[in-house]
Amino acid sequence: MYNNNKSNTETLAKYLSLDQGGKVQAEYIWIDGDSGLRSKTRTLDFKPADVSEINEWNFDGSSTNQAPGDDSDVLLRPVAIFKDPFRGGDNILVLNECYNNDGTPNRTNHRHSCAKIMKTYTDQHPWFGIEQEYTLFESDGSVLGWPKGGFPGPQGPYYCSVGANVAFGRDVVEAHYRACLYAGVNISGINAEVMPGQWEFQVGPCEGIDMGDHLWIARFLLQRVAEDFGIIVSFHPKPIKGDWNGAGCHTNYSTKAMREEGGIKAIHAAIDKMAARHADHIIVYGEDNDQRLTGRHETGHISQFSYGVANRGASIRIPRHVAAEGKGYLEDRRPASNIDPYRVTQIIVESSLA
């Protein structure tokens, strides 16, 4: 069951309604050395109109697996601003890149190289839409909605489900959806997934580097919302072993040429190039993805590349309406739920356009 945090939330609301005296709280957010998210808050004397107006900051990288203890300062360089749905008002969320003291990108900073690639191919207008699957757990480690010490009924009634006996965690999901809309994240939808306690939200279409920025902020918002409900979010691609669906990050992709008349030729050309680099893609398509890409539960096998029209068991799916219209986009179904979207979008553009 959910932790009862209602009284704490009401108490907090009393303080959050206090006047801030013209000050702005800026929540600096960054990706740590274990592909997790960290954040801390700084007071600004003004409301920034552009991210370039926000100063760099730093943190102890030895505590986030990003630097050794004898040279632990890691710099935070602001790259994007979003509205803060938790504090409201003029308060903001600030996404950052991490840099070493010598000015080089930290080894965990995959945004830096991704931004270069996106700039190189900006004339191709690469669009992305990512379907982020995740699983909700209670504080005792059990999947939300599952019977204690047991298992729910077989998969079937839970996908896009409605009803207290099949849909578990909707309040977390709805709160997250609204928080994303308020923040300015380009969230495009939500749905309950095949495994009970598992959900999905979609972000996009986003062009270029915006895809990674918006997905990371959406993940941050999900974890913060779940924190308020006393719920734990897992992005593991196979959180429950056995005959249960894993969690992915299906990545939809198109270029200007693919979206124009006759674009199906460009789609097939991109698929051929991506097939030739299947192993390279798998390397950056998520940790423990071999537990998910087994050829079962709507996946292709991790060691084999395949594609097909409307085939959810393929590595890459061409939606049926795309094949019929002769233009549109492709869906790469290989990425796991714990991907770094900067690495995934970068290699997709590199492979398909180089």
From TrEMBL:
Homooctamer. Residues 110-354 form the GS catalytic domain. Its EC number is 6.3.1.2. Keywords: ATP-binding, Ligase, Nucleotide-binding. One of its GO terms (biological process) is glutamine biosynthetic process. Belongs to the glutamine synthetase family. It holds the Pfam family Gln-synt_C. It comes from the Eukaryota. Coiled coil: none annotated. It catalyses: L-glutamate + NH4(+) + ATP = L-glutamine + ADP + phosphate + H(+). One of its GO terms (molecular function) is ATP binding. Residues 24-103 form the GS beta-grasp domain. This is Glutamine synthetase. One of its GO terms (cellular component) is cytoplasm. The lineage of its organism: Eukaryota, Fungi, Fungi incertae sedis, Mucoromycota, Glomeromycotina. It is an enzyme of class 6 (ligase).
